[in-house]
Amino acid sequence: MASSLPKQPLLLFISLFLVLLLSPLVLGSSRGGGRPASLAYHRGPLLTGNVKLGLVWYGPFGRVQKNVIRSFIKSLNYRDQHGAYMEPQVSAWWRVIESYRPRRRGVVAPINVKVVRQITDKNYSVGKVLIMDFIPGLVQKATGGDKNTIAVIFGARGVTVQGLCMGKCSQHGILGRQPYILVGDPETECPGTCAWPFYPSDYGPKGVTLQPPSGNVGADAMVVSLASALAGIVTNPYNSGFYRGSLTEQIEAGTACPNMFGSGAFPGYTGKVRVDPANGGAFNARGIHGKKFLLPAVWNPRTSSCWTPL
């Protein structure tokens, strides 16, 4: 029987060299290092103008976690005027999402995000496993019945959220015409899936584990997940905006460039980031009060490529 391996040592060496050389490129095409296909616009409405958020803190959350997440939300529209020291800013990341809207006289109109309501449910009113049957009640709590408010439900450490950790670290959906977002703390549920690069990955090259910018793995992992979900809900709120793929497996602005945090990223490597000398935390954007965040790459509709702050 003929062998499929090269018979000459030189040919074998060349073949192995080419496999090793090309394998990062092949892996990168599916895990963020390549150049994904563009997102298609399906002619549906996008979120514009003022976006109101109603938050539910489901389960016990510490002050650090709440402050990190709220600071990130406040930073979306915050533009510091102190020059290059504060660059890049979270608001620059958000402007890429704003650019999905049609320009008016060459100017992109801002999308202003504001928290208008917060509810704390520290005693797990419907248990520690959040199945989709429980979501309508929590959405009602978050919005107070206001259909123009987006419900954002955060599950605390140890809370299992249906649909998360199974290929998704956050998700957004609609109940009727009411948009909502689900974000879980992955620190105990699925750190190897949804806390990378602050925790060793369960898949592919392990790479280097980075320190979270706030010092809290759960908080900074949730910021990454929330950022992806916000990018998706603004550009595809009713499953008829910008995405590619099928209705049930949509790839959106916040998920088109997985595991990328800086230029030069490839599987197991975040790409270019900065390190805070004070605590060793990795970051790629600054926000309000000089807070530091590590934000995921997003799909830039103007350049049809993945965009990162650095």
TrEMBL record:
Residues 1-28 form the signal peptide. The keyword Signal applies. It is found in: Secreted, Extracellular space, Apoplast. Pfam families: Phi_1. Its main location: secreted. Keywords: Apoplast, Secreted, Signal. One of its GO terms (cellular component) is apoplast. The keyword Signal applies. InterPro entries: EXORDIUM-like (IPR006766). Belongs to the EXORDIUM family. PANTHER family: PROTEIN EXORDIUM-LIKE 5 (PTHR31279), PROTEIN EXORDIUM-LIKE 6 (PTHR31279:SF13). This is Protein EXORDIUM-like 2. It comes from Eucalyptus globulus. The lineage of its organism: Eukaryota, Viridiplantae, Streptophyta, Embryophyta, Tracheophyta.
